[in-house]
Specification:
Distance between the termini: 85 Å
Radius of gyration: 25 Å
Oligomer: single chain
Strand content: under 5%
Number of strands: 0
Order of helices and strands: HHHHHHH
Length: 147
Amino acid sequence: MFPQDLIVDRLQHSAFRMRFALKPPEYRYLQEHGLEEVLQHAESFVATRLAPAHPDKDGKQTPFRGHPVFVAQHATATCCRFCLEKWHGIGMGQALTTLQTQHVIDMLARWLQDQKAPVDIPRPARKKAAKPSPRNALADERQGVLF
């Protein structure tokens, strides 16, 4: 297992990993439920989706959005056993130890604590339909008239 600081440094040089950030709904969820509760969810997700020696649907078990932990898992390369081996030095084919599980949770906590509030960009307002001018109203009345 590689040291956390080394992993964080490597992740910061990955364009793919760096593009992950919490969107407004996920950030609100983190703020409303608090880091402790979200990390309890993380423990449950890791125990069921990552810790087994051969997780069900390995490589596709972590959604890209919907919960702050899912986003954090992709950002920290703790989303599947392949990424754990490549980025963290945690081998495939054996269940995660308590120490390895704690390493994953610590990585997620570190990333979640560093998240800044996302800029909530308002959607552009819909343009109102233009009111027909009297000239256009006459043209509208004649629409479809051949003679």
